[in-house]
Specification:
alpha+beta, FAD/NAD(P)-binding domain, elongated
């Protein structure tokens, strides 16, 4: 790839004794020995209850098993993910907030973004383990290409099919592979392929949203920015073909199955409680506190006003640390 003038880089991944780290083993587990930290597992937050004025949260109602509990606190922070944080706010509608909690703007649940996400597979003649982690990424096409001046997106290798979590949620890729290699079983498919994730930012659209129809949660989503994503896929296939010409002993097939992730794959969801200075157009202020409820914060990816073509994880972490500093300053006053 470097011979083609591209600039692959190592991905910024956290690695631990058991592979990739996550929020549980890097964020939650280390603080559980603190006396002022309690973790309630298998608990579902059902509704947020406000005081009579509707300006403060007085309790979080949660269901643990068959029992309901009320948890009280001076500050309430939501980090349920963009879909479920919005759903909890909408589910918490009351007399003061008839359209959903903190929803004066009408933006709670709207502007859902989840990236245009496809996988392109290289088929190999030599076997691999099928369990390797993601390692490489490229941003050479992030700001466009020679014949297209608009952003195309980000490319990274997928990791082995047995290793990558999203593959488990996305059986269409296995279907695409089986059509090309009909006599191969799952293990043979996994160990004779290299996958590449291609990600293009989708744009905020008020009609892409999370909302309730009766008591059923509904997700409405129509992809946009599709041309840029298709161009990224075609451009990347050209890159792979050039690699394969120069590595004939490793790659002996010229087909490149593509699978677009369906709506069920909600990886990198964001945008349902956008932040901004104007309470008429934004759910949160710039400190990620809701404009309408004075002790309620949302610090997951819901706050994004726009998406990117890379994982939002590092931005979510950085913003959570920023909001954490703000809360400590507020509580120490």
């Amino acid at each position: 790839m470097t011979q083609q003038g591209l600039h692959p880089v190592h991905l910024p991944l956290g690695l631990g004794e058991h592979g990739r780290t996550d929020a549980e083993d890097t964020g939650i587990t280390p603080i559980l020995n603190n006396e002022n930290v309690t973790l309630k597992t298998s608990a579902q937050a059902v509704v947020l209850h406000t005081n009579p004025s509707g300006l403060e949260i007085k309790a979080v109602e949660a269901k643990i098993g068959e029992q309901s509990y009320l948890f009280l606190g001076d500050v309430v922070v939501l980090a349920c993910g963009a879909v479920n944080s919005a759903a909890l706010l909408l589910r918490s509608a009351n007399e003061k907030h008839p359209n959903g909690l903190a929803n004066r703007s009408g933006q709670v649940g709207r502007n859902l973004m989840k990236q245009l996400l496809s996988v392109v597979v290289q088929l190999t003649s030599t076997a691999n383990s099928g369990t390797f982690s993601r390692t490489l990424g490229l941003n050479d096409f992030y700001w466009g290409d020679k014949d297209f001046s608009y952003p195309l997106g980000h490319v990274q290798n997928s990791g082995g099919i047995f290793q990558d979590v999203i593959f488990a949620e996305a059986p269409p890729i296995l279907s695409a592979l089986s059509k090309v290699m009909p006599n191969f079983g799952l293990r043979q498919l996994a160990t004779h392929s290299i996958g590449w994730w291609l990600k293009t930012e989708d744009l905020p659209n008020v009609n892409n949203r999370v909302h309730y129809v009766g008591d059923k949660l509904r997700v409405d989503y129509t992809p946009n920015n599709v041309e840029a994503h298709d161009r990224l896929v075609y451009r990347w296939v050209d890159v792979l073909k050039d690699v394969e010409v120069n590595q004939p002993t490793i790659f002996n097939r010229t087909t490149h199955p593509r699978s677009d992730m369906p709506i069920q794959v909600m990886a990198h969801q964001c945008g349902t409680c956008r932040f901004g200075e104007n309470p008429e157009t934004a759910v949160l202020n710039l400190d990620c506190r809701t404009h309408d409820v004075h002790n309620l914060y949302v610090v997951d990816s819901s706050f994004f006003p726009a998406h990117a073509s890379v994982s939002p994880g590092l931005t979510v972490i950085a913003n959570a640390l920023r909001v954490g500093d703000h809360l400590m300053n507020q509580l120490n006053r």
